[in-house]
């Protein structure tokens, strides 16, 4: 059996795949995304595909792969880049990597929340540009976490969005991107948040209407935002959100610890191998 791997991945994952002796591997050996034409050519005739969240796996790719393709294993917890209806129609099974990145992503959410509400990037910049002239009682003040309420979208009990926006000092978005959550954090949502509230998104950029977020930040409707995800990714360096001091933007590093990325690569390899052997996968997406 033949598989196509769309990027350089942690060596533990590649070793698991190659040492199993189940398949021959063709790989796009680069840290940069595979060009579309190479993806279409690379996947042709393959039985398995190991892809990333930045690879759009749609009808065109599935057609290019042809009827051999039986397993798609994505090295991600998110699966909004996969055309699930098409995939299901063709009887292709999908593996993904939920759970093992929860801790790393939660840590990053806390780090981003603190960086945003305590204005860390702005403060670091002031040290570098000479803005730090003396200690001033009203300078660089932000919002602390003590005695505050944090509303998390995508965790535990489902609270109506409007109520969550109105009652939280900090809103953290961690939910998956689905047709229901697309654009969910919009003008109406931000207008319900307190003027002192801070908004954090570590899920997917498209959950947020970015024009509405920009207006909310510029007009003072909300205090600040911290984003680990954006639309598009990467966000163009001249994007309006990047001009705002009260918006901290990170390059989608939620799961970026060595251990987590290694574990994700091994799980995605094991999902692929199990699928190729017709066995149950360690983490299969139920379609
Ligand atoms: C995922 O796996 O979907 C995450 O966004 C990566 O950090």
State Rg.
21 Å
Helix content estimate: 25-40%
Distinct bound molecules? (2R)-2,3-dihydroxypropanoic acid
- Give me the strand/helix succession: EHEHEHEHEHHEHEHEHEEH
The dominant shape is: elongated
Look at the structure and give the mean pLDDT.
97
Taken as a percent bin, the fraction of beta residues is 5-15%
Instruction: Count the beta strands.
Output: 10
Order of strands, main sheet, comes to 2-1-3-4-5
Task: State the distance separating the first and last CA atoms.
Answer: 24 Å
Count of helix runs? 10
Query: Which structural class fits the helix and strand makeup?
Result: alpha/beta
Taking pLDDT < 50 over at least 5 consecutive residues as the criterion, the unreliable ranges are none
For the sheet with most strands, the description reads:
5 strands, parallel
Oligomer category: single chain
Detailed description of the structure:
This protein is an alpha/beta fold and 287 residues long. 34% of the residues lie in helices and 13% in strands. It has helices at 11-19, 36-43, 59-65, 84-89, 102-117, 120-129, 161-167, 187-192, 210-218, 258-276; strands spanning 2-5, 24-27, 48-51, 71-74, 93-95, 150-153, 170-173, 198-201, 224-227, 247-249. The strands form two sheets. It has a five-stranded parallel β-sheet, covered by helices on one side. β7, α8 (187-192) and β8 form a beta-alpha-beta unit. α2 packs parallel to α3. The chain is elongated. Bound molecules: (2R)-2,3-dihydroxypropanoic acid. (2R)-2,3-dihydroxypropanoic acid binds at residues 53, 76-78, 101, 254-255.
């Amino acid at each position: 059996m033949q598989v196509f791997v769309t990027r350089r991945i942690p060596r533990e994952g590649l070793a698991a795949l190659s040492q199993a002796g189940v398949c021959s591997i063709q790989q796009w050996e680069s840290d940069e995304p595979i060009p579309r034409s190479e993806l279409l050519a690379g996947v042709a005739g393959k039985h398995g595909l190991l892809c990333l969240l930045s690879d759009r796996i749609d009808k065109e790719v599935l057609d290019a792969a042809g009827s051999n393709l039986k397993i798609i294993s994505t090295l991600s917890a998110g699966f909004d880049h996969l055309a699930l209806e098409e995939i299901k129609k063709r009887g292709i099974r999908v593996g993904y990597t939920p759970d093992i990145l929860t801790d790393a992503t939660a840590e990053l959410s806390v780090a981003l929340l603190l960086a945003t509400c305590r204005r860390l990037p702005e403060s670091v910049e002031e040290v570098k540009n000479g803005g730090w002239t003396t200690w001033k009682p009203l300078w660089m003040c932000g919002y602390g976490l003590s005695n505050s309420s944090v509303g998390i979208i995508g965790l535990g009990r489902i609270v109506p969005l409007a109520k969550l926006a109105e009652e939280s000092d900090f809103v953290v978005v961690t939910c998956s991107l689905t047709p229901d959550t697309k654009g969910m954090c919009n003008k109406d949502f931000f207008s319900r948040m307190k003027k002192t509230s801070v908004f954090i998104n570590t899920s997917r950029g498209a959950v947020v209407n970015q024009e509405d977020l920009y207006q909310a930040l510029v007009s003072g409707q909300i205090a600040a935002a911290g984003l680990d995800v954006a639309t598009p990714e990467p966000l163009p360096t001249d994007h309006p959100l990047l001009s705002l001091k009260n918006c901290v933007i990170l390059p989608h590093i939620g799961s970026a610890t060595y251990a987590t990325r290694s574990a994700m690569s091994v799980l995605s390899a094991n999902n692929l191998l199990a699928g190729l052997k017709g066995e149950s996968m360690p983490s299969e997406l139920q379609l």
